[in-house]
Structures
1.
Amino acid sequence: MLKRERNLTYALIVLVSLLTVAPVLMLVMGSFSNSLHSFGNFTLKKYISVYTDPMLFSVLGNTAIFVVGSAAFATILALFLAYLNTRTDIPFKFLFKVLSVMPMMIPHVLFGVSWALLLNPSNGILNMWLMRAFSLSSAPFNIYSLPGMVLVEGLLDMPIAYLIIAPAMGSFDASLEESSRVFKSGPVKTLMRITLPILRPAIMAAFILCIVRALASFGVPSVLGMPGRVYVLSTFIYRVITVSLIADYGKAAAIGMSILVISVGLIYVYRYFTRASDKFVTVSSRGFKPSVVQLRKGKIPLFIILLLISFILIVLPVLVLLYTSLVPYVMVPGKQAFAAMSLQNWRVVIKDPISLRSLKNSLFLCLVGATVGTFLSVLVAYVIVKIKSKASGFLESISFLSFSFPGIVIGIGFMWYFVRTPIYATIWALFFSYVATYLPYGIRPMTSAFVQIHGSLEESSLVCGASFATTMRRIVIPLLVPGIVSSWVLLATMFFRELSLSAVLSRPGTEVLAIQILRFSEDGQWGRLSALGLIMIAISIIMVAGVNILGARFKPGEVREKRVKVESQPLKATS
Amino acid sequence: MEIKIRGLKKRYYSEGKVINALDGVDLDIEANKIFTLLGPSGCGKTTLLRCIVGLETPDEGEIQIGDTIVWSKEKGIYVPTEKRQLGMVFQTYAIWPHMNVFNNVAYPLQNMKLPKAEIAARVAKTLKFVQLEGFESRPSTRLSGGQQQRVALARALVAEPKVILFDEPLSNLDAKLREETRKELKTFLGDLGITAVYVTHDRVEALALSDTIGVMNAGHIVELGSPKKIYFDADHQFVADFIGRANLIPATITEQGEAYTFVDTAVGPIRCQKRSFAPDDELVLCLRPEFIEFGKVEGDDVNHLDGTISQMSFVGEMYETEVDVNGIRIMTKLDPMTRYNEGDRVTLNVKAEQCLLVSK
């Protein structure tokens, strides 16, 4: 038994190292190499050429504004929504749940595109309408700008911040606030002097995680930044490997190194704050309900703001895409537009061989990748939670390594890695890089599932005379089903819309959906893009809903009552 | 089936320190009796139980259940848990949430590969025994705490093991239910007449349920005996203190009389139940509040203590009363209807046979 556990641990360490440690090493070595084909000849040439590039200065400035701006916007919005949900009597609280899972449904690149369709300076729908309505000579808004990118990225990252801040705010011990009220502080003063300072670790953790996400973000910078020549680090790397005549992966690796260092550093700071927030926030198990603020007069206006945010985040992108997919070219909604509506774009897309191939590839990566990723996650989570040793601690740290890696940077690492193997330029290159990069997202739900299986549930099975195999089959695996379902769904939705790794590793023949969307956007094929995007959203929703229904049937409770009917029959026969 | 334990040792390493959870335990557990391991948390009682059932591996020693040696360091024997054919009720009950009551209880029989009809019949019989008839198809997540407890008991009993083990089975129930379940359990175990090993830190449970109690501390069995022996006749201060409320006053022997042992204490000279000790033993006088009476009663076998009532707390069924005797506060009880008041001068009576000398 012990030997078997040790063997499993070491086997997983080797496997996970190949997936997560190897690309980082290749990235580091690649950054000191001249080209993909002269790997290993040490040179500082790439670093010198990148860090003396005159463009880099403006790119760094853009990145700083983009990253800090969107993170601040996301955090403040999340704070506002979390407060409304957990501490006030605002109606329709289910909207908050919808808002927090929204990014699983709508790919970031499509969300960015829908804003481009509304507010781009040459033919943005809203811009054209405003120009006509107020007889303006030029477009009032330009989404292809830093403020536009900050706004859209901030909206997209808000749920991440919300999911960190809302639980902390909800489990807050109300007596801390009540005692402040007793000492004659008003509600606003209490919020500023007591509530927010106590929640500071959670707020900082949310802010930093948003910075990391924005730094890694490629969808928004590519569809909103590149058309207006506003480059941030991630699109700068993309430019280095695609725009110039000869893709320079050494240079890309050299830029990537600096993003990687910043990103890993920020994750350390994030860990510090989440640890601190565990200590700080006084979560009480005794069922304290935080005091609810009566909104009174503010209720209706605040509710309208909430509805507006929900509309912008959920309904608007789908509406814009649907409208665009039906009209032959971008026009202001009206009589003329409705008369011109047809399914032409849809017909073209479902006959377009590249779109179909990208759909097929994405489905394969999503279904097979998520299944393999979940299987690996189950094993790794088992070792992390149930086998406590130095080796399993090491496995945990290398498995979560990729959590801090921006996709496009680690993609460059994989490029250096795979080019030396036969899987280069095949679908398997995407497959392995997906599984490796998103492994932490698969492991997280599984570790909490394992933690919830109290040791005595397995032990009592042994006492009841069941072998190790029977215990696994009849006790452990069935109890893991909810964890397996959430791991699979999380991985599948992420794989289905994966963009930043694919932007580096996808080749003709291995296109994926997000890449095809990016191509359409670069070519201004808005109608086809919208049709394909809607197909993508629809499949995501069906997949998430389907797996959840399937998972619910296997959940403790429902299954039992079904099984009962079968197994209580012999009982009746004998008694 | 009796259980024999010889020289059992188990060490843990925690933060560089060695913890002797079991420090050489020798123990014989009688067949078909209820044996309780009683002790404070961390005394090693649960570790000992887990060694018996095979969920922990001892470092040294031997365990024999009936005629079978299930673990021996010297002889290199290890019978895995699933082959030991024991029943066990866990502290958390460990009812599998994804199975209904029938499947939870049938599980041990299913592992024995019995025919379905026999399984169904035996499950029905066991559920009837624990008064859960008709609960077969109930999802186990929809059981109350007391019902879960009974399902756990049914599962432990269904395969008719020769030994059943309990790991603090009542500690997750609220006070009232705990009392009811304790009485039920006593009835069930009385009816069954099998060997039961029961681990608890609750002295009332131990006194009420057991035929024999083993009091544990720091990896040792300190004392072994019937509930009455442990309560009235403890040999050690630790046991006397743990099994009930006690006034503990350091004492020195002045004279070994024919019928009594005479000691000197801070509350004056006291005649005690006769007992002999090794000459260098440090001794403590143990006076239980329930044996201290108010008012002067004459007699050769009675000790008198004069003092002042320093505090009275009304707790419902009595006044918890403290009497200051020579600067020592003696815990006593007074009837809730009493006429005594704080500050009253009183005389306390304690019979010599209820003055227990124990070694420190």
Note: The CA atoms of residues 357 and 570 of chain A lie 53 Å apart.
2.
Amino acid sequence: MRSHTIGLHEVGPLGGQIGAGGQAKVFLAPAITLDDVAGPLVYKQYKPGHEPPHGLSAVVARRLRMDVMTRSRLDRLAAWPVRIVEQGGAVSGVLMPLIPSGFFENRVLPSGQPKRTLREVQHLFIDPGRAARLGMPAPTDAERLTVCRDFAAALHLLHRNELVIGDINAKNAVFRLDARPCVVIVDCDAIRIKGAAAVVRQLNAPDWEPPEDTLSQATDLYKFGLFVLRCLGPGPMASVSRDPARADAVLAPEGRKLLRASLSRRPADRPTAQDWGRYLDGLLIAPRRQSTPPPPPPAATSTPGWKRDPRTKRWVQAT
Amino acid sequence: MESEKAKILPFYVLIDVSASMSGDKLDQANRIMPQVVDALAEAPILADKVRFCVIDFGSDAQVRLPLCDVLDQHSSLPSLTIRGATSYAAAFRLLRSEIEVNVKQLKADGYLVHRPAVFFISDGEPTDPEHEWRTAFQDLTAGFPTYPNFVPCGVDSANPRTLATLIHPASGPKQMQMYLMEKGQNPADAIAAIAEILISSMLASGQSMAQGSSGMILPAKQDLPAGISAHSSDDFV
């Protein structure tokens, strides 16, 4: 049986820093490979005082106990913590798979500066014309339905495995449009195993608060309803909207009913991720038969490293 | 599905364009607006939360970018130019009247409005009589229901003691801070660093805005860029 914990020395020399948040910094970890992880790894180093208490090991162990098929599905749908990293007997961080380059957009910012941006789902919520003007993709209705469908599939896999995402929000999932699955859930160390306490206290992002106080699979389903509504009804104030009528134009009567039920104050009313998956599959299958076959998967590309310039704090490509 | 009113944070930047600001300092000040636009382009749902306004002040004060959703702005951003002396009084008076009009407008448009946030950037002492700018500041902060959270930022020859009296609220759970260029730093670099603080405050405030929160978040001291220090009002007596 594999150990779910490794020492920092086993990670080896770190590569460039590719991200920073309030609680952690993320570095490339080019020197380590793992049998059970297909691609490159990153090391997420918690800032002092932000190390999650024990419980993270259960989330890591849950993945290692999965059969190979389920684990490889999970790895395609979520940037899951794959090993806990310890230094001097204390948790210093986690290893996670590197988010594939297909989930990044090479764009030009309004000032003219080129930038490589992670395609967080927040970019789906703004007016498509504005997104295009800002150098981001402006998906069609069919592409948006596909994104919702793959998000539903990811949620279903997690729920079927007794997991609770908790903090679904505008930045915790990323999307691509040229390959399936097109959604990956990121920031998974806030995930909780059903029936156990959370690793990191589970929180609601502003504008994603469910009606009830305690986070559960039912609140995941409410928040997924908000995601569907905001993804299918993009535009001004979509990111804060809770009005299901916003997505009426895209959803057939059955979908409108599902969306209204998802946003019900009564947890028992909310459709499961599987219900959503079946409905969206039904919508998508018909048009896809007439369309051209999907393009072959893009050739594997190496993901260039990005780091913050310590002076300007801008992202620059590590060479 | 109850409809909620959307909440907007009006964010004002006041920039000194007196004669002493010419050169590199003004160049950096002119980079603030494009940087704000870029930051919002990377976090575009914040355009549902934050409105941005730029006022410059020299001998007088002028609204250079009226309060707006900057991602919606097709026209080019204004370019700041030097205009004489340093009238704090003119800046405070114009800010007060803008806030009054803007908040009224936002409310009429159906939004809830958070307490406005102000970054005030100056490189020198006010040139107008003290009682005049003090009265104008008093009118902006006391007895004005929509008084702003006021964050003074000083570079070069700005007087820390003067600026410290502009921190508002100066005490209490929602007290603001002052940012100062550390001695020996390049003033233009300090303006760039202040722009960074301003943007991180705008992003954090917009992201955290929810019912009941103050709507104005400043970065933690350990996250400040090099060459800038944060102070509260009692640091200078």
Note: The CA atoms of residues 47 and 184 of chain A lie 25 Å apart.
3.
Amino acid sequence: MLRRLILAAAAVLAFAAAPAFAETEAEHPENYPFSFEGVFGTYDRASVQRGFAVYSQVCAACHALEHMSYRNLGELPDGPFLAYRVTNEETGAQEITLTPHGHHGKPVDPNDNPYVRSIAEAATISAIDRETGQPTDRPGRPSDRFRSPFPNESAARLANGGALPPDLSVIVNARHGGADYIRSLLLGYGEPPAGVEVVEGKYYNRYFPGGWIAMAPPLVVEGQASYSDETVATIDQMATDVAHFLEWAADPKMAHRKSMGFSVMIFLLLLAGLTYTSYRLVWRNEKH
Amino acid sequence: MSGPSTYVPQTGFTRWLDARLPIVRLAHDSFVAYPTPRNLNYWYTFGAILSMMLVVQIITGVVLAMHYVASTGVHTGGYSSIAFASVQRIDRDVPYGWLIQNIHSVGASMFFIAVYVHMFRGLYYGSYKAPREVLWILGCLIYLLMVATAFLGYTLPWGQMSFWGATVITNLLGAVPVVGESIKNWLMGGFSIDNPTLNRFFSLHYLLPFVIAGVTVLHVWALHVTGQNNPAGVPVKSAEDTVPFTPYATMKDAFAVVLFMLMFAAFVFFLPDALGHTDNYIPANPLVTPAHIVPEWYLLPFYAILRAIDFNVGPIDSKLGGVILMFAAIAVLFVLPWLDTSSVRSMRYRPIARICFVIFVVVSIALGWAGAQNPSLVLNPVEYRADLNWAQGGALRVAEVQVSDPGQMDAAIEASTKELTDAGASYTYVARESGTRATVSGLVGGEMQTQTVSAHSTDELEEAVATAKQGVGAPIVEVARHTPFEFTVTRLAQLLTAYYFAFFLIILPLLGLRETPGRVPDTIAKAVLSRQPKTAGAEA
């Protein structure tokens, strides 16, 4: 009887642990089949790259990535611009490429990574000139943090009608629904339902708690972000890609985590078998 | 219990050491030769699991403290605090920092899962009864220290829940009469939660685990003096009742520890954020209160008890009442050895107590559920109704009331209203324009009409009332709203809290005097050796 009760209690506990308070009128985010979901899920590298294009060409006008550096783009395991050094089989020359070519490519240090360097150099970083001690501007380096669009919170609020565009480094962790929520939010703008009072200076979004969001619809036309691959930058595609990118931004070590987790589970299962056998052997002549 | 030492030093060095510091003898007597009851089931392995968890938390915590920066200052180039950014740095840049941080944060939850099982086990098998009162009290003390440590640790990432959790809890202490405000300011290191608060919380969060480790040594010492309780609850009477700790208990504990680690690892590697709150990934902002402030899951039952008190009792207001009950819910555990009057330890042989215990477990879990809900959430289906009364036709009479002294206002309005009613007005309506001016309207004559509207929420009802009023078009409409019975989460929490305390303060003291226990076996060996193979293990 006790065992059954415990199972029931565990079920109740699982229910209680489910996100409390899902009572806002906002619509539940649409479940999109992202490739990183599940125990064995991985990031779709092309999508993260495209998502970075959307972030840097659209979102970065207002949203910072304050916990990230340019070098992260070229870091193991899943940096979208992680490059590999490979030997050209025809000429024998060393080449740096974004595709690993099987297992022959050697990962390039982000500091030597031409893709990461050019992304960093395109940014203007405010610094102190070492010689004169005066504020100066210089091109970015891979070691620099992502340049924030505003120097501080007050400036950000002033430029956005009092609202603070949240930092996006961990945004998928900071919202119920994660990447699904981000994607849905970007696609959820529209006319408010009849009878809903219009809030001045805000925009109706059916996925936003309360319905009215200070962010203007950020993705409005097809091709707003220019993609370097053949993918058509539809609004839906851009929203999906940037959600994918932000998931990577919040959890760049996912691949390490999952692969180590898999090994640890196998190890513990074997250890459990071993300890159980030892336990049975030790107790074989004792009643208990 | 331990009896005379059976340790015999084998080498010259151990003989030399044994004569000077018999530490090997201590370890041998405590963890090798120590006799354990042979009928211990898997519920008794949680002591070992908890020891492992304490070590895991201390080791990962020490490493995290090497990288964590306790500062609320704004981190360069961003909006979040240095503390928040340093946790991000641990996750992103410290080698295997993500692993250590996940183990530590998930580990806190695992620690509490284990401690709750351990405590419920102690309750069920009567492990708090003589001669183990001190052992039990030390355990309660460890639990209290764990709660404090977990709460302090949760503030360190300086997310929204960190900040607001700290605000709620320090405010609670402010509810203590006379000295509350001083204690609160002393604890916060100022007049609000700020950098001094974070610094002292970090300092205490580092200190308390070592206090826990110290009390744990006392807990194990007390355990080894009285010997372990066992599922039968009968004391060890002969060597036949026991087996040596090593290898018997050690191997069983090892297997259970590995099983527990499997669950632990599943969360660490595949669901690292499942037990936390998303709001703690939002940097702390003293100007924005989260929609719902909730503690971590393991403190939810006490949070529910705290919020269940929504009424004042004499001089004790609802806030102080909640605080008192919340602390009483833990304090009652300390005196439990003297509340339970039954001489039978194990609830295996107490049919009624056993049912009450199972209800108690369900109530505790339900309290946890209630703690996570919005307290005003209505649990029963409710229909809100309002009656609209008005008179069709008739003549409207209006009387102006003006007085020079606001104090005479009520009397003047009453007089004017009475005048209208005497003149045959069926409905009167008072509109106060200022402290000294009002208009009293009354409807004379006309036909009485009634309309009832209903809705499923108060907002919908007001909407329906407004619509109905417009449809009626009468100058004066009297609205009588009926408040139906609302069984809110707070009401549920009150019932559950009542059972929580009744279990300790009424059921256990009285039941021990009235209950007819089942047949308790004479010895552990008899209970174990006579058991039919078919029913063996049915209890575990």
Note: The radius of gyration of chain A is 25 Å.
4.
Amino acid sequence: MRRGFGLLGRGIVEQKALFAISAVGSVLFGAMTVADAWVLGWATDHVIRPSFERGEVVQGALWTAVGLFLGVATLRALGVIARRLIGGIVYYRLVATYRRKVTRQYLALPMSWHHRHPTGQLLSNANADVEAAWAVFMPLPMAVGVVAMLAAALVAMVEADWVLTIVGLVVFPALFGINVFYQRWLSPRVAHAQALRGDVSAVAHESFDGALVVKSLGREAEETERFTRATHELRDANIAVGRIRSIFDPLLEALPNLGVLLVLVLGVGRVASGAAEPGDVVQVAYLFTVVAFPVRAIGWVLGELPRSVVGWDRVDNVLQATGSMAYGDGTVPGTGAVDLRLRGVAHRFDDAEHDVLQGVDLHVPRGSVTALVGATGSGKSTLTTLLSRLVDPRLGSVEVDGLDLRTLDHGALAGTVAVVPQGTFLFDDSVRENVTLGLDVPDEEVWEALRTVQADGFVARLADGLDTQLGERGTTLSGGQRQRLALARALVRRPRLLVMDDATSAVDPEVEQRILRALAERTSDGSGPTVLVVAYRKATISLADEVVLLDGGRVAERGTHEELLRRSSVYRDLVDAYDQAREASA
Amino acid sequence: MSSDTTLPGVTPVRATGSQIVRRGLALSPAIRDGLWLTLLLAVLSTVGGSVVPVVIQRTIDSGLGDGGTTSLSAIGPYLLGALVLVLLTAVVAYWMRVRLFVASERGLAELRVTAFRHVHDLSMLTQNAERRGALVSRVTSDVDQVSLFLQFTGITIVLSIGQMLVATIIMAFYSWQLTIVVWVCFLPLAVSLKFFAGRLSRAYDTVRRTVGEMLAVVAEPVVGASVVKAHAIEERTQQRVDDGIQRNLDANVRAQKLVAVTFASAGLAGGLANAGAIAAGVVIGVAGGLSMGTVIAFAFLVGLLVGPAQMATQVLTEAQNAIASWRRVIELLDTPADVVDPGPDGLALPDEVLGARFEGVGFAYPGGPEVLSDVDVVIEPRQRVAVVGETGSGKTTFAKLLTRLMDPTRGTVRLGDTDITQVAFDELRRHVLMVPQEGFLFDATLRENLRYGRRDASDEVLVAAVDDLGLADWFATLPRGLDTPVGQRGESLSAGERQLVALVRSALADPDFLVLDEATSAVDPQTELRATRALETLLEGRTSVTIAHRLTTAENADRVLVFDAGRLVEDGSHATLVDAGGVYARLHASWVAQASLGIAPVAD
């Protein structure tokens, strides 16, 4: 609870001016709600009763009452606008501010941090958790107004009659208490139902994604049964939530009505004994009917608070994470292909006991094409991630043209080395933007890069060419097409070292050959970058000037394809597997 | 997030909101049955609140208004009656809500399951991968929307109407003149309601759109983290994220303005009605037409109208959204299953290895040109056929027609001598099996995934199938054996391993006719070798049609079918076709040219 109030404090301080306006608006609303009851009481004693007693309309007082009613209603409307609009803005701004902070962290934190956290979790930290953390700010202004309203109501009641006040002192805290209890009881069950809703969605996603398997194996009935199980769990959880609501909502509605009846019972006696005016009874009764609903806001705040604290903890976890990749300020002089050298490089993943790379010394000469070969788990991919400093090696150094990567400025590094991974990420943007990534290059250069990676054909056939929108709401591309765009993205920046980690695995082998040959030609005529390519296919290897065999995180062999074939049985086994596969099927 | 657009292939339903609600209720009998009782209870449950003004009127008129000449005994019966009514109302309200929650949840669970089952019968599911997300949202978030509507928005509408109705009846009972005054005071609000409702609904549309766009850009620094860092485009990415967040913020604030104004104006109308009722009440009352208690009771009755008026615009907007969701679910259910299972009336297939026959077969997607035309071909039992052609040549369509993932728009496909559309699905699947390119696995253990092939297989049978395909050495590398969890979509296994599992699964299903879509993506050589050998074993003694991406596969087939621009253009053995000097010979030549590179090029 204390941490909950801490969170409220943090949000209020963050948006103090707007929150103050919404709080003032809400207090105005609260005060005017009580004033409304007071005006009715006043009108009863000064307009209605005198008029009826005298048998003629008390004109002056009547106009005053009309003016009071309209004035109070206008002020209350202003209060409502301030409370709902400004209060809403406070909430939306808090959510936006923290979404920005969280995404800034994502951009600043190093890849090693990203690797430790599942994607789904990071996405929900930036979305659902940020919203949950500040959700309490939705009912908060109302709750502030309600506190003012209750204070004003207390004053109004005390002024009217102390016996009727006691009824209020019983009914209002009871409303408040029941509502807190209600929200506390309900909240975890709603969260549970929400989780089950996620399960239902997961089953549907999986089942539809695997439709071809489901259909061809005739598993529709079993899949439906699986979906039915998840659906029924959700149904039962929702019904459980519904039962709780069914008890409390009518109870909370009945309570103020019972209060009014009690006020009437006691009020009759008080008026008869002369202790109270009829207007006082009317006023207190009316108060009960108008205050009853807003009082629930306090319950909403207190009910929401635990969920907000949980959301905030998750958000704060991201915000408190420290560490970022420190870049130097060096640049790589000159132009054209660079020379790459790894010296005594060792690396391991955070929680691993053994190094995936150990004592790797590797030299890729300027303007050469080198193929990196190795079995699954030999450390090939890890090595490529070191080259664009997605991670830094535990030991040793990576150098281009003799400069340690860690001394280079971030932009200089990105401009020098381009690593193209197997998995590609496309932005929800046009083809052009996906290739240039904001780099200011003319369309001819974009097309040239697309041509080199054999992507000009399919891009030209897209509905809007370079302007075609990709991503969730745009055109969907095949895996091979995506990989080719990722490759064009690297080429258009004219890197001086190009590293491909199985970057063409989904491209048809024939097309892949054309791409690799085009790249190799550019490198050998001096216009292209130095190339390091992780190779699976023998054809890729055949394009390389030199082959490096990684085995168990070490450089086991290096030389030309023929040399390695002669020298290394590991290499022979690895590379000949395709031939064996062909023979097996022959 | 529910999809706002229509789905190609789904029959659009043109119906008004109330027709949609009626049709939706008819689809969920659990909701419809007893709904009238629930609605009656809902109206009755507003009585408790409405009885208070009546008691106040009685109390005042029986003497309180005259300065306390009344006694408790005079109003006792009224108070007691009101007490009973308030308590009774609470019980009725509880009863009504439980009925509503239970009925709507049961009905919607049924609807969800029916829709889910129906989606699996739509060929769209296997034809159009991009639309799967939209189909998922129709059985999840769209149904959730309907449930929220029935339980909250819908009941708010019923309770509001009930409360306004009961309050108005009481008012009219007291004084028709004052009732008119009150309603005239609410008139401007009612008129502006339509104006606000339209704007509000547009504002919320914008909010939903910006949410979608924002979620996409917020994902960039997470899903695309390595790209962003490798290309040093942090600032640009942050700018995109900030812009997306800002647009969503602006849209929310705009919607919030409308909500605040509609809320405030309802309160304003309430104040106006109060002033009007009291002024007019006093004037009429003094003239002898009304009692003092009645005038005061009107203030309380006006209060009963303000709540519903405040909620009206929001409720109308939500109702529109919910009906749109309901419409989408109904559209889905109204889309006929295009590939129909003849069920128990279906023909059986002879218990032997079968061939297939295409007789003048053509296929076109609805409203499109034919993508496959005039295919006449006979595939002999136990023949090994390779299908070759470029993307869009019709070879995948050919394979899908063979497995009845779709039905031809022209001509007949026969298994043995039997028209494939006459064969019961169960029977068809015992004989014919499609093995897709990517070995799709379900998020479960290896055992459960293999059992997709044969549901009751014991562990011994599963392991034997693994051994039979020569995969025992690979299986031994799995630390947890059959208990190995494969992860979402099988992602804990490598792409090659997923293919192996798919092969074992197919072997367990034991069809006599296999239709294979060869994998194009490169996997590591050892696994590739294993897969090739396992596949070889699997194909033995069965008829097979393979969509070949490697010409080695074509080379080794008994027969090659070459497709080009939707037609079967060549048919023969590898050797004959190479000599014929046609499409296949050209493909083969490019392969020979690269043979020195040691790869098997692909004819895709």
Note: The mean pLDDT of chain A is 86.
